[in-house]
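This entry is listed as follows:

___
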Amino acid sequence: MDKISDSTLAGNDRTDDDRPAAGPAERPAPDRTTRRAALIATAVALPITLLVAFLALAAFAPDEPAADPDPSASAPRVQSTTPVPMAAPPLAERPAVVCRALLSQLPDTVRDLAQRPVTAGPEQNAAYGDPALTVACGGAEPSVGPTEDVWTVNKVCWHLAQQADAAVLTTVDRETAVSVRVPGAYEQPLQWVAGISDTIVASVPSAAPAPAGCQG
C-alpha cells in the first residue's frame, strides 16, 4: 500500500479561502458619443429653463400704473357762454338773403373755439370763443389800392387791416362782404378764416372784377 504523504493530504485539504483573491473588475471605458449627447442636452435645457423662469416672473409681476393723461392735451378751451355784443345794421333784401344762407352754414366751431350767442342780428352775425372771434355779414367792402396786399385763403380773397388789439379780415371778391375780427390773442389771423372761407365759397357768390392780387 502506497503511503500518502502528509504533503499530499495537505494539498488536498486546501479550501477556497486559501485561493488567491481575484483582482478588481475593470470598469468599461465611457462611451464618448454618450458623453457628447449629455453635454448637448444640458446646453439646450439650461436656456429653456431660464426662459421659462423669466416668463413665470413676468406673468406674476404687477402691471405698471398707466400714466395720467395730460389735462392740457384733452381739456377744451375754457370760454364764456354769455352773448357777444354786436351791431346789426339793416340790410337790403339781397344781402339779407345771402347773409342768412351764410349764417345757416357756418361751422359750430372755428378750430377750437365754440360758437357763442350774439346780442343782435343772429341772421347776419356770429361769434366764437373767448375772447370772441366775430363774423359780420353785409357790411361795407374796403377799398383796395392796386398795390395793396390781399390774401387768398381757400379760394376767398381777404383784405387784412391790423388794429391795436385785433386783425380785421374782410372779403373783397364776394357779392356781399363778410368781415372776421380776430383778437390779438390768436396768432396768425389768416389761419382762423380757413373754415369760414369754405362756407363762404358754398354760400356767397363771387363778384367780378376781383382785385388784381386775388388768386383762385
User: Anything to note?
Assistant: The mean pLDDT is 80. The two ends are 155 Å apart (CA to CA). Strands lie at 109-110, 113-116, 125-128, 133-139, 151-153, 156-162, 166-171, 177-183. The domain at 82-203 is CATH 3.30.200 (Phosphorylase Kinase; domain 1).
